[in-house]
Structure formats: C-alpha cells, structure tokens
Design goal:
There is one protein chain. The chain is built from 7 helices and no strands. By secondary structure, the chain is an all-alpha fold. It has a single domain, classed as Up-down Bundle (Methane Monooxygenase Hydroxylase, Chain G, domain 1). The two termini are about 25 Å apart.
Length: about 210
C-alpha cells in the first residue's frame, strides 16, 4: 500500500538523455574550436556553460534519487551513471580550459582525430541511454557498449602515438611538451569515462534482464 502512495521513478531517463545531449553538444563545440582556433575564447565560454548545465542536471538527479520511493533501476546505479556521464563533460572542459590557460598557440597535432573519436563515443553513449530506458533490446544495448570500449582503445592508440611524437619532436621545449601532453590526457580520460559509462550500463543490463 505504501509503495503505491509514494512517488515512483520520476524523470530519471529524461535527465540521462538531457545530459547525453549536452555532452554531445560539448563535443561538437570542441571539434569546432579545433577548426576555428582563432576564436578559442568564445568556444571555451560555450563549453563552460554546457559544463555548468550538466552539473545542474546531475544535481537534479541526485536530489530526485533522495525524494522518490521507487526508482526504475538501483539508486547506486543511477547516481554512478549520471556522475560518470558528467565526468565526460568535465574533462572536455578541462581540455579546452588548459588550451586557454596555457596559452597554447596552435592545435596540438592529432587532437582533432582524438576529438572525433570522442564524439563518436558520446554518440554511442547517447544511443545506449535511449535503448536502456525500456531495456527492449539488450543485444543492441551491449553493442553500443562494445563500440564505446573499442573507441576508447582507438583513442588510447592515438594518444600514445601523438604523445610519443610530441616528446621526439620537441625535446628542446619541455614546457610545450608538458602543456600539450595534459591536453591529450584530458581527452584520453574523457574516453576512459565513456568506457566507464559503458561498464555501468552493462551492469544495469545484467541486473534487469
């Protein structure tokens, strides 16, 4: 009787979808930034705004978890999923913020390729969240997760290649090496968080199918 009287589910999947939309928008802005680097400051502001909006969505989800009696999936999985998604946006912002703060004069070699892989991973994330809502096709859901894992590996390969090249080609400028390396690592870590999202989704799928 009590369960019927208490609030159910809430708008968790609306929030997940909104967060995924914001993160994908952040990826799009990041790619634009890399092809229009003279306007870096404008794009940094745009990404900062999106990061704040993602934070707000995360706070709303955590607040809702504490208010509703029945959730569509385990509370800890809801919190872990939204926080890990939010980490992706945080790391996109970190990459762009470092480019501005460190006054990096030109786009680091290979960074557009890494950004493109990140965008692809976030698209897979967005599609996975869409399927997760009804768990109507676990095989499709897991396929999106597998693709996120593959893209994370692809980004790791790119990061190793370009960081290695960075050390070889700029041995005489250790400050430049440090600055560019941190930007590469921010993007690489964003892909790591996408893989973490995939792992959370896989866990939820196993629990509910």
């Amino acid at each position: 009787m009590l369960a019927r009287l208490m609030p159910k589910e809430g708008r968790f999947f609306d929030y997940f979808n909104s967060s995924a939309d914001k993160i994908l928008e952040g990826c799009t802005v990041f790619e634009k930034l890399l092809h229009d680097y003279d306007n870096l400051g404008t794009y940094v502001q745009d990404i900062r705004k999106l990061e704040h909006e993602c934070d707000e969505i995360t706070h709303q989800v955590i607040d809702l978890v504490n208010k509703v009696f029945i959730t569509p999936i385990d509370r800890e999985d809801i919190q872990l999923l939204i926080k890990t998604m939010d980490d992706v946006m945080d790391l996109i912002q970190a990459a762009t913020q470092r480019m501005e703060t460190y006054e990096i004069r030109s786009v680091p070699n290979g960074l557009p390729s890494m950004a493109r892989v990140l965008t692809q991973a976030v698209i897979e994330m967005k599609n996975a969240i869409r399927v997760l809502e009804n768990l109507r096709d676990p095989k499709e859901l897991l396929q999106h997760c597998i693709e996120m894992n593959r893209l994370e590996n692809e980004c790791d390969t790119l990061a190793r290649e370009y960081i290695g090249r960075l050390f070889r080609e700029h041995q005489d400028d250790p400050l430049l090496v440090m600055k560019h390396k941190e930007v590469y690592e921010s993007v690489e870590e964003a892909l790591d968080r996408c893989e973490d999202v995939a792992n959370v989704i896989e866990t939820i799928t196993i629990k509910h199918t």
